[in-house]
């Protein structure tokens, strides 16, 4: 993964505002993509780059929603339950529902 | 503690492998399903370390995740460790979820390579429409930036200025002043410092630099570049 130096980092930040050094490591993204299914063969160079930004957006969205729940509860620390609530109350995060309830209850077997 | 069968998502596939772990390296490599051969197995380590390595491979680095979270949270907000880990897991699940869908599409269309467009299509199909526009923009900018960098040093698509960057040997001159102290020289770029310290341009150039306010930098800077401060 190319790590832009300070100048080129600022350069790219100044031009595009957002591109430049990626916040998430591309090699790791690629690895996780390959793990998702046995028959993932080849991945174009740009796909991890799209994912790096998409994951950033996802993290931001979950965090924002979780924080809203934290604030409603008059607290300042986002806890796992806030994250779980944020996931459960958002339709697009349905695929994460099992994950957050498994995280919360690691002893239980998953519901069929 | 098998947690497989979560609608086919990948996250827990490593567990069956762990249950058979505890054997020596050669046996592991023979027993593992083909998919596992793709992951970098440090077969020479113990079970615990192997679990750790695989754990790291499965998720985004937590420091990066935290950085992104803190970007949008107010300064006084705190995040519990298990919340951080949960989000870390969510990210990996998201990648797998989208990739599966994109991969299915590729297979239907008999293509072998998952492209950025496939990823975007899968996101749109799975309900992440809101992400499509910023991602498309991001991808276009990336293509412009990266294509410009590799193509030539002129950086023309990026900055439309009458500058001859070939003289200075780097891409382009940023149109936006960024928060670097002016007294560090020209936007803190070493090559420019060298240029400014050229005795033939010493007097007026340095005075101009010294007096530069960031909002005026770009115009004065370009003048200096072009004429050396007339």
TrEMBL record, chain A:
Similarity comment text for this entry: Belongs to the NFYC/HAP5 subunit family.
Species name: Abeliophyllum distichum
Gene Ontology terms: cellular component: nucleus
Gene Ontology MF annotations: DNA binding
Keywords carried by this UniProt record: DNA-binding, Nucleus, Transcription, Transcription regulation
InterPro entries associated with the record: CBFA_NFYB_domain, Histone-fold, Transcr_DNA_Rep_Reg
Full protein name: Nuclear transcription factor Y subunit C-3
UniProt-listed Gene3D superfamilies: Histone, subunit A (1.10.20.10)
Chief location: nucleus
Compartment annotation: Nucleus
Domain Transcription factor CBF/NF-Y/archaeal histone: 24-87
Subunit structure: Heterotrimeric transcription factor composed of three components, NF-YA, NF-YB and NF-YC. NF-YB and NF-YC must interact and dimerize for NF-YA association and DNA binding.
Pfam family of the protein (one): CBFD_NFYB_HMF
Signal peptide boundaries: none
Domain of life: Eukaryota
Role this protein plays: Stimulates the transcription of various genes by recognizing and binding to a CCAAT motif in promoters.
UniProtKB/TrEMBL annotation, chain B:
Keyword Metal-binding: no
One Gene Ontology cellular component: nucleus
Name under which the protein is recorded: Nuclear transcription factor Y subunit B-6
PANTHER family tied to this protein: CCAAT-BINDING TRANSCRIPTION FACTOR-RELATED, NUCLEAR TRANSCRIPTION FACTOR Y SUBUNIT B-3-LIKE
Region (Disordered): 1-26
Family membership noted in the UniProt record: Belongs to the NFYB/HAP3 subunit family.
GO biological process: abscisic acid-activated signaling pathway; regulation of DNA-templated transcription
GO molecular function: DNA binding
Keyword hit for Transcription: yes
Composition skew (Gly residues), residue ranges: 1-10
Keywords: Abscisic acid signaling pathway, Activator, DNA-binding, Nucleus, Transcription, Transcription regulation
The species this protein was found in: Abeliophyllum distichum
One Pfam family this sequence matches: CBFD_NFYB_HMF
Ranges of residues in domain Transcription factor CBF/NF-Y/archaeal histone: 59-123
Coiled coil regions, renumbered to chain: none
